[in-house]
Design goal:
141 residues; alpha+beta; 4-stranded mixed beta sheet; two-stranded antiparallel sheet; 5 helices; 25% strand
Length: 141
């Protein structure tokens, strides 16, 4: 069991003009469940990969900085999960979450570039609050 306190994590997010913390709350809630419940991690990762997996070891990061080769911009995926699966396979999932903002195609393209860098051991997942956001993300293929 990971020593995690969701309230300590959420305390840093507060409403400000032109900003609501809902998206970060969503991200941190998902991260907390994945960090503290190995069965939830296996079920979630199996859903993301569309196949049953057994997870041996994993790490869950929120708003971790990532760099794309040959670019100066820093990218901050909402959620990054890295896992060692049964059989030695490594898997990474970069997640973008949206609550009250529209899908941002450039963000998803950047995440896709991060996934390509990892050569078939990474995927990009999108969690939207509305069907419209999910449709917009799905149209980027």
């Amino acid at each position: 069991m990971v020593d995690a306190n969701i309230f300590n994590v959420l305390f840093k997010y507060y409403p400000r003009p032109e900003y609501t913390p809902w998206e970060n709350f969503l991200t941190e809630a998902i991260a907390y469940i994945l960090k503290t419940e190995p069965c939830a991690m296996e079920a979630w990762l199996s859903l993301m990969l569309d196949r049953a997996v057994k997870v041996h070891d994993y790490a869950v990061l929120t708003q971790n900085s990532e760099q794309i080769e040959d670019q100066t911009a820093t990218i901050f995926p909402d959620l990054k999960v890295t896992a060692s699966l049964e059989g030695g396979e490594q898997q990474t999932v970069y997640c973008e979450h949206k609550w009250d903002f529209p899908c941002n195609p450039d963000q998803l393209r950047n995440y896709a570039e991060l996934a390509r860098r990892d050569q078939d051991s990474s995927i990009v997942a999108f969690v939207g609050a509305t069907q419209q956001q999910v449709r917009e993300a799905g149209n980027l293929n």
